[in-house]
Design brief:
Helix 1 (about 5-15) runs parallel beside helix 2 (about 30-45) and helix 3 (about 60-75) packs parallel to helix 4 (about 90-105). Strands 1-2-3-4-5-6 form a six-stranded parallel β-sheet, with no helix packed on it. It is an alpha/beta fold. The protein has helices spanning about 5-15, 30-45, 60-75, 90-105, 120-130, 135-140, 155-160; strands spanning about 20-25, 50-55, 80-85, 110-115, 145-150, 170. It has seven helices and six strands.
Length: about 170
């Protein structure tokens, strides 16, 4: 018998939930192995109807965000408009990966993304702020209404550099 954190990915691949539109896995302690299992299932074509994915508080580190990036680059989750990654542990490296996903266009359908309390400091916060504030954001993410990075740890000097914050960014 597989541990619960790996079983969901296996079950998704077997086709048990073909009409799934919202997946709330918040507060499950999935960590790397659990999220890898799920993102691998998404890469294999599962969850194509998912519009909202909640992965809050699962100790997802930068390796987990890399798995998310890999899945999205295969065309996974084409209908996803909401993702919640709050209270994870991916820090600056994960923030940079998310910024790359934004600028490469793989998150183009998103309306909301929550990156609050993910242990990002200057490097990660700078990357996500620049990505979500890029001149091309209207083209890359035309439906974007909210990108939230609250309760991370940018320095005062970095925040002063940002100047005027666009209305879709909360920090």
């Amino acid at each position: 018998m597989l541990p619960p954190d790996l079983a969901l990915g296996r079950e998704m691949v077997s086709g048990v939930c073909p009409r799934l539109t919202k997946l709330d896995l918040s507060y499950n302690g999935l960590k790397f192995k659990g999220t890898k299992s799920i993102f691998d299932a998404f890469s294999r074509g599962c969850g194509t109807g998912i519009t909202a994915l909640d992965l809050r508080c699962n100790s997802i580190d930068a390796r987990g965000i890399q798995g998310f990036r890999s899945a999205m680059e295969t065309g996974a989750l084409p209908k996803m408009v909401h993702i919640d990654l709050r209270m994870n542990t991916f820090g600056d490296d994960g923030g940079k990966l998310i910024a790359h996903m934004v600028l490469s266009g793989v998150l183009g359908n998103l309306e909301t993304i929550r990156l609050d309390s993910c242990q990002m400091r200057d490097a990660g916060m700078s990357a996500v702020f620049k990505a979500f504030n890029a001149k091309s954001i209207g083209f890359l993410m035309p439906k974007l209404k909210l990108a939230s990075f609250k309760n991370n740890h940018p320095s005062t000097a970095l925040v002063k550099q940002w100047g005027i914050i666009p209305p879709h960014i909360m920090f």
